[in-house]
Specification:
Elements (H helix, E strand, L loop, with lengths): L2 H4 L1 E3 L6 E4 L16 E5 L4 E5 L10
The protein binds zinc ion.
């Protein structure tokens, strides 16, 4: 899995850049119970999930 490609997603709260949560070795992404990727936004200190089912609506 290429983590660089999915490393950042726009935060839904303030549109800042959220960073992918991974294990300590940055090899395995953190996911919730549904397998969605987890992101942390350093700007607003929120974590949010990203569902790939939304990807067709995104252009970045
Ligand atoms: Zn944010």
């Amino acid at each position: 899995m290429n983590l660089e490609r999915i490393k950042y997603q726009t935060c839904p709260y303030d549109q800042e850049e959220g960073i992918l949560l991974t294990d300590l070795e940055e090899v395995i992404p953190e996911t919730d119970d549904d397998g969605n990727l987890q992101y942390y936004c350093p700007s607003c200190s929120n974590t949010f999930t990203y569902c790939e089912c939304d990807s067709r609506d995104r252009r970045y």
